[in-house]
Amino acid sequence: MVATEQAKQTVEEVSGEYKYGFVTDIDTEKAPKGLNEDVIRFISAKKKEPEWLLDWRLKAYEKWLKMEEPKWAMVNYPEIDFQDIYYYAAPKSSEDGPKSLDEVDPELLRVYEKLGISLKEQEVLAGVAVDIVFDSVSVATTFRKKLKEAGIIFCSISEAAHDYPELMRKYLGSVVPVTDNYYSALNSAVFTDGTFVYIPKGVRCPMELSTYFRINEANTGQFERTIIIADEGSYVSYLEGCTAPQRDENQLHAAVVELITHDDAEIKYSTVQNWYPGDKDGKGGIYNFVTKRGACRGKNSKISWTQVETGSAITWKYPSCLLIGDNSVGEFYSVAITNNHQQADTGTKMIHIGNNTSSTIISKGISAGKSEATYRGLVKVMAGAENARNFTQCDSLLIGDLCGAHTVPYIEIKNPTAQVEHEATTSKISDEQLFYCLQRGLDVEDSVTLIVNGFCKDVMKHLPMEFAVEAQKLLGISLEGSVG
Amino acid sequence: MTLKRYLETPEVGKNFEKRKAGFSGTDQGWLSDIRARAMDKFMAAGLPGPKVEEWKYTNLGFLARFLANENFKILKTGPDAAETKRLFDRAYMGNIAGSVVVFVNGYFNPALSSCPDEDGVKFSIFSENPEAFRQSLAEPKQATSLNNLNRAMVTDGYYLEISAQTTMPQPIQIIHLATSGSDGQSLHTRAKISLAAGAKAKVIESFMGPDGPQYWTHMISDVDAAEKAEFCYFQFQLQGKQAIHMTEMHSTLLEKAKFTHMNLQLGAEVSRSEIMNSLSGEYAEIDLRGAYFGRVKQSQDIFTRINHDKPHCQSNQLFRGVLDAGGKSAFQGKVIVARDAQKTNADQSNKNLLLSRKAEANAKPELLIYADDVKCSHGATVGELDRDQLFYLRSRGLDEAAAKELLVEAFVAEVFSDMPGGGDTVVLQQRFIEKTRGWLSKEVSS
Amino acid sequence: MLEIKNLRVTVGGKEILKGLNLTINDGEVHAIMGPNGAGKSTLSYAICGKDGYEVIEGSVLYNGKDLLSMDPNERAGEGLFLGFQYPVEIPGVSNMNFLRTALNSQRRYQGAPEVKAVDFLKLIRAKAKELDVDPEMLKRDVNVGFSGGEKKRNEMVQMAVLDPSMAILDETDSGLDIDALRIVADGINRLRGQDKSILLITHYQRLLDYVVPDFVHVLADGRIVKTGTKDLALQLEAKGYAGLGIAENAA
């Protein structure tokens, strides 16, 4: 985002929009701690939601109560007390935030500096009360005008519930059913915000859309709900997250993302996840339990997930593709880095349903410190899916001898015309490679960053330019202190 | 585990009570205690259901029904002699010299057997000398539900011990036969194989029964290989079409020990071969290979685990599956490299061929790695025969069935090629190929 | 410039260098020859600071500075370049990126400003051209899929770009065809022309036809046992080590 002027502008502008949008009519109220029907009614009322959406939430809540927390992932964490969480808290007023960068944690500032983030942006990211980004109304207008001209809807999920109820009703929960899993049910009951995108027929979105635009809004990350619909022949590239470490007081995150592509449409969804991973001793950190799924409903449609996961104490996510339309394509490119006491159980599901569908999975896991990284993926070819193709490559790199790297693929094939290939390797940075780099003058940290970036190249090259440069630096920062 | 993940089978308890008096070793108090405790444990848990990860691909609902059968008999006496002989002749490899040990319907058959009696070799039969099994029947650390059932119901088995530095001159053939009279019965056998330092032995184990009866062969083997011991094991699973076949082999290897396991799964309606191994000494080596074939309601399940507990060990796994109409397979292979098992070399390869629209192959090749200086890899593929290759062969005049047969044979050949096994390698290799061809020629789908 | 005194080095507990003395002055080219296992590669690794090469006695001074107390990358920053006998593959890292990172790391160490991307591009293209190396090679991953000759040429390009004050070339000539050998020799001579010091470690005197050394040393059993001029190399070629009274596989 630092990389382009455009991204900067868009930050300013959407932030501005919120300032003049619904942000102002939320007062500082909080729902009481814990979860019950009243809390859900409270959230729904706050959002001035239509009746059907409240019903939908309540039904989800009812189902969630009957579900069990999943235990199969290779992650360990203390029992979560779901009654000890605030499910609705209005964003903190700016007075609560730091007054200037002097009050911000110096460790955070050091990382910003390493990432090459400008002072102004540092202030935004660190939650410093600034108004610099809000005063550019003219840019906001230009941006909004541009999307509107193209007929693109890009708004918060709450706005969409008011302004585009038919679309919302049609697509909400259509890819990730309420009862898909424990956390998707929880999200369905209590989601507080998120993004809604609709790209009309034949439209190629003229710019990368990014959640980063709304970074100054606290707490939206906790139970986010995102829906992106690409109608026939359309294209959109969507960027989620931010390379800069994000401040967040909520430990539990349970987002749901639903993507839908119709005939000949394509969605490229890129994530850089760098939530607080906890300290060196494993204290604190975000639990990131995300359900992301895309449905390639139309023929020749394509959904591509690219993710760089470096943050969170625990990551549990499997961005998936339902390849329903004939000739549809699913892709999953992932880099997951764990250091210190982080745990990541991540991967994908590629479900081949239509004919001539193909999927590619490239997963690079890097474990350092005392961390554990697991790739868990499913490739399933249904009996009626002719000529399905899948290629999976999972590589793990271990740094140090106290970490773990695991590969748990599931391959389930019911059609003989399928061609499915899975390969996995595990290795470490060799002493020879390290010495070669040192001899050429690189220090240990730079050498490791360079070698790890090389290891991840097949994934990194799929990141949009806005992310790529910073993501490379991020790999190095995430591995700080892992070698030496 | 919560109870609801398991299938309750109250009838098993009743059958156990009914059968109890006829078990081997009823005069041994310790054994009766083990049986009773194991049964209690089994009853408390039940059979693993499909929600238990290890049994994800094999629904044991049918087994629960099978175990509810009220006609449990003690089959020790009375298998049809003529039928037994016919089956024996098909299973026995006459071109391999050495001793032969035969079990019929889960019990030792002295008439057809000539047990090993070489110097440095201890051999006993469970029904004759239960005491030899005392240690191996003790409750394992993590006894699975099926392991408990086996320990409660054990019918018979063999004990083989090779002294230090002793090389068995000939392989031992172990033949398990089931006759028509075994319909509805469960045959719970056991083996304990123990090789002292530097010992070498080879065991060829064949399972055979007629089409028609549904019987359940359930065998658990424990293998201990001490320092520098070498053990070669071959399994030919040639069960009848309706049989249920489950074998579970647990091996523990000490320093520089070598274990080779070759596995051919051709018969049975439901088959599961579990091969669980611990590399507990440095420089130990293990080589697991197998081919499995399935068609018409057949389900073939290979389940392996290799625990690399010590540094410098090596493991190779090579499995090929061929599935035709109605056949289903699951390969679940797990390699676990412990924290201090540096310099581990672990490779795993699983390839599956689907010959028909109604075939299904599942694979779950897992790597769990806790040490950084290791070389571990796995590969898994599923696909059909290469159409270009098929066309090429046909253009050279082969008919479709012959062309397919040739290509399938080539596909599984890797498993048998450069097969270890010393003097009898060629004979064993031929047996693998011959059996594979037999399966193929029966009906290669078009 | 480089001054090695009584250097004793162990590898895996075994003593390989047993009190080696060597002084190389500015602008001199020295060649070290010796039978297999004499400790030739150990010497180059010890000078450059590879892990596992433990100096148990002696000193190595470079322009008066104690090399042995420095990290390998600091030694590189001081101007030391090691041409590897077996250059390592680094998948996913392009030669360009690698070299630019290396060059800027060294410049940072030297307190010099980093080289701008545009200037770097000009520099590397010029060097590639000088050495007759296909610029396409620079875009490929470091040594990945390179033939033996390509790897050695790549080392020469790196040497030219990094512009060290001293180069140690460990069997850079081994396994090269005559064209590649010329390129490598050309790279070395260009460096020599700038009054830089060079230590050639070689098994054959073939390279010395193209790069004529000022001194030739024979290393055997962890010590320098003979020193002479180019004639010594020719003598070795003609008579073998045994002919000069040096035991093969002495170590």
What's the layout of helices and strands?
The complex is a heterotrimer of chains A (484), B (446) and C (251).
Chain A: H1 5-20, H2 37-46, H3 51-65, H4 106-115, H5 119-125, H6 137-149, E1 153-156, H7 157-163, H8 165-171, H9 182-190, E2 193-199, E3 209-210, E4 224-230, E5 235-241, E6 252-253, E7 256-261, E8 266-273, E9 287-296, E10 302-309, E11 314-317, E12 320-323, E13 329-338, E14 343-346, E15 349-352, E16 358-368, E17 372-381, E18 389-399, E19 404-413, E20 419-428, H10 431-439, H11 444-455, H12 457-460, H13 465-478
Parallel strand pairs in A: 2-4, 3-5, 4-7, 5-8, 6-9, 7-9, 8-10, 9-11, 9-12, 10-13, 11-14, 12-15, 13-16, 14-17, 15-17, 16-18, 17-19, 18-20
Antiparallel strand pairs in A: 1-2
Chain B: E1 6-7, H1 10-19, H2 29-45, E2 47-48, H3 61-67, H4 81-91, E3 100-104, E4 107-108, E5 121-125, H5 134-137, H6 145-153, E6 156-162, E7 172-177, E8 186-195, E9 200-208, E10 216-225, E11 230-238, E12 244-253, E13 258-265, E14 270-279, E15 285-294, E16 299-308, E17 314-323, E18 328-337, E19 345-354, E20 360-369, E21 375-383, H7 387-395, H8 400-416, H9 425-442
Parallel strand pairs in B: 3-7, 6-8, 7-9, 8-10, 9-11, 10-12, 11-13, 12-14, 13-15, 14-16, 15-17, 16-18, 17-19, 18-20, 19-21
Antiparallel strand pairs in B: 1-2, 3-4, 5-6
Chain C: E1 2-11, E2 14-24, E3 29-33, H1 40-48, E4 53-62, E5 65-66, H2 72-77, E6 80-83, E7 90-94, H3 95-110, H4 117-130, H5 135-139, E8 141-142, H6 148-162, E9 166-170, H7 178-193, E10 197-201, E11 215-220, E12 223-228, H8 230-243
Parallel strand pairs in C: 3-10, 3-11, 6-9, 9-10
Antiparallel strand pairs in C: 1-2, 1-4, 4-5, 7-8, 11-12
Helix pairs in contact in C: 6-7
Fill in the keyword field for this structure.
heterotrimer, B: 446 residues, alpha/beta, ten-stranded mixed beta sheet, nine-stranded mixed beta sheet, 23% helix, C: 251 residues, Rossmann fold, six-stranded mixed beta sheet, four-stranded antiparallel beta sheet, 8 helices, 38% helix, globular
Question: Would you kindly provide a brief summary of this structure?
Answer:
The complex is a heterotrimer of chains A (484), B (446) and C (251). In chain A, 27% of the residues lie in helices and 29% in strands.
Walkthrough of the structure:
The complex is a heterotrimer of chains A (484), B (446) and C (251). Chain A has 13 helices and 20 strands. In chain A, 27% of the residues lie in helices and 29% in strands. Chain A has helices spanning 5-20, 37-46, 51-65, 106-115, 119-125, 137-149, 157-163, 165-171, 182-190, 431-439, 444-455, 457-460, 465-478; strands spanning 153-156, 193-199, 209-210, 224-230, 235-241, 252-253, 256-261, 266-273, 287-296, 302-309, 314-317, 320-323, 329-338, 343-346, 349-352, 358-368, 372-381, 389-399, 404-413, 419-428. Chain A is of the alpha/beta class and 484 residues long. Chain A has a domain at 5-15 and 126-430. Chain B has 446 residues and is α/β, with parallel strands linked by helices. Helix content of chain B is 23%, strand content 37%. Chain B has helices at residues 10-19, 29-45, 61-67, 81-91, 134-137, 145-153, 387-395, 400-416, 425-442, and strands at 6-7, 47-48, 100-104, 107-108, 121-125, 156-162, 172-177, 186-195, 200-208, 216-225, 230-238, 244-253, 258-265, 270-279, 285-294, 299-308, 314-323, 328-337, 345-354, 360-369, 375-383. A ten-stranded mixed sheet of chain B has the order 4-3-7-9-11-13-15-17-19-21, covered by helices on one side. A nine-stranded mixed sheet of chain B has the order 5-6-8-10-12-14-16-18-20, covered by helices on one side. In chain B, helix 2 packs antiparallel against helix 6, helix 7 (387-395) crosses helix 8 (400-416) and helix 8 (400-416) packs antiparallel against helix 9. Chain C has one domain (2-83, 148-243): P-loop containing nucleotide triphosphate hydrolases (Rossmann fold), CATH 3.40.50.300. In chain C, the strands form three sheets. Chain C has a six-stranded mixed sheet, with helices on both faces. Chain C has 251 residues and is α/β, with parallel strands linked by helices. Chain C has helices spanning 40-48, 72-77, 95-110, 117-130, 135-139, 148-162, 178-193, 230-243, and strands spanning 2-11, 14-24, 29-33, 53-62, 65-66, 80-83, 90-94, 141-142, 166-170, 197-201, 215-220, 223-228. At the A-B interface, strand 18, strand 19 and strand 20 of A face strand 20 and strand 21 of B.
